[in-house]
Recover the amino acids of this structure.
């Protein structure tokens, strides 16, 4: 695990610096929108998706990092937009995120909607600029992961099924679309930038989908076993009303499922060599993480 | 003008058919989201942006239409998303559009936000698929036009300046970003698909920006001189509170400005031959259109 911590300790500041540079500056018009975009992106976060993108890039053979770092930032912009929109009153209605006010609480609902919209456009602008000739492969990857059978579709199912009876089949679909699709996209994106072949890309996509599900189950386990105080969540919709594995099949069974998915992830990349070290460590890190 | 009417009469059904095919079907999961996406896109509309894209394509030399028709549909998806988000309660709070309920009134606010988000992703997915090797040029065009110094930036300024003193310099900026940026993008996009050079692309972009401003001024003139009945607008924010040329400089001066911009548009494409006929006719059509 020390190797992974070292990897993240070097990568995270590099990503933070690049995100800050790729975002429009707050003294450029429209200032409020730009300030709010920076607030939404630069307010912390684990930068897990960039880490998975870079770890997959290395696993697939590596090479010149410049393009893939910007592609990782593009995915992080996309992810940041989904958080801003998910927090809105018409969605999860969260007042706090990462110990700060959510974007709509800090800047108002209209600006928060626009922040998400502009971050999605910035994600595609950044990705296309980073991709050059590869844009015809990278842009569809991100667009599909972000679309109506990706993060947005998962959020739609999540929203519609709130308060309904817990349904493991539905939860599988929600977790895959809402969380795992974008994480699998990170892994395939890293492979494209390393010039990896379709076989490698498919294996890395399987790995990404499995660790994405692990990530979501562990997130739900944390919320289920250590619910946040009401003050930290504002008027947030009850976690219990959401479709989650811990609520549907119980804490132990959810933990078992996460462990099986972790094994699936490592199995998918079994033929990769030592270059896949960080992916293997990340898989375990995601399974074992605590609040 | 008969030539233009014939052009639009042939093009519009072709675009409608292609939009219907490119959209996810309503019997695919998540069904409600897909039904709402189709509602938002297929509920009429002039399909002006596809017309400008195709007219610019012809003006720049034309060629195989397949790619450019899909690119025009991509821009229409992008445009449709901005309408869905602009109508939201936190924005313009409109209940009706094109004589039907707005998307959030028909499907709820959460789904409407997600419809916009998914349509933006679909726009980039469609554009990249249509572009092939040209994706590295087409995707940044659309992303910039859609971003924080394009349609989203214009909407942010519009939102922030509501109720403030009318300011012609601010109105110029709002109109350029909110409306003209995407229309100029249509014109440059058509040029890219025709294989036109940078000089042609720049002239077509100037044309597009000018007719985009004409379009917005005439829209504001229609609202100003023939305000819609309150019943048609729901709880919509007052048009008078918005920054517009008719409110700022008066109806006659706004009409004069639109006429000057129309002349600018035609001047920008003065060196184009008869292939630019539809662009010239469209410029006049946009100046003279009635409710």
């Amino acid at each position: 695990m020390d190797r992974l911590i070292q990897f993240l300790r070097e990568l995270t500041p590099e990503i933070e610096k690049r995100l800050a540079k790729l975002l429009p500056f707050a003294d450029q018009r429209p200032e409020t929108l730009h300030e709010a975009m920076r607030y939404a992106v630069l307010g912390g976060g684990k930068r897990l998706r960039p880490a998975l993108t870079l770890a997959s890039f290395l696993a697939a053979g590596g090479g010149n990092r410049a393009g893939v770092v910007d592609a990782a930032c593009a995915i992080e912009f996309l992810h940041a937009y989904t958080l801003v929109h998910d927090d809105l009153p018409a969605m999860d209605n969260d007042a706090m995120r990462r110990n700060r006010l959510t974007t709509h609480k800090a800047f108002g609902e209209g600006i928060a909607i626009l922040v998400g919209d502009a971050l999605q456009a910035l994600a595609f602008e950044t990705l296309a600029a980073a991709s050059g000739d590869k844009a015809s492969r990278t842009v569809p990857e991100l667009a599909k992961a972000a679309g109506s059978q990706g993060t947005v579709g998962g959020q739609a199912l999540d929203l519609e099924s709130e308060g309904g009876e817990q349904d493991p089949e539905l939860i599988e679909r929600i977790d895959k679309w809402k969380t795992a699709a974008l994480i699998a996209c990170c892994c395939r994106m890293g492979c494209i930038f390393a010039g990896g072949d379709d076989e490698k890309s498919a294996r890395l996509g399987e790995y990404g989908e499995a660790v994405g599900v692990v990530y979501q189950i562990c997130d739900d386990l944390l919320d289920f076993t250590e619910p946040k105080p009401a003050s930290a969540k504002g008027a947030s919709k009850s976690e219990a009303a959401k479709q989650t594995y811990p609520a549907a099949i119980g804490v132990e069974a959810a933990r078992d499922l996460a462990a099986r998915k972790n094994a699936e992830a490592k199995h998918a990349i079994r033929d990769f060599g030592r270059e896949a070290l960080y992916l293997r460590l990340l898989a375990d890190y995601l399974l074992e993480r605590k609040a």
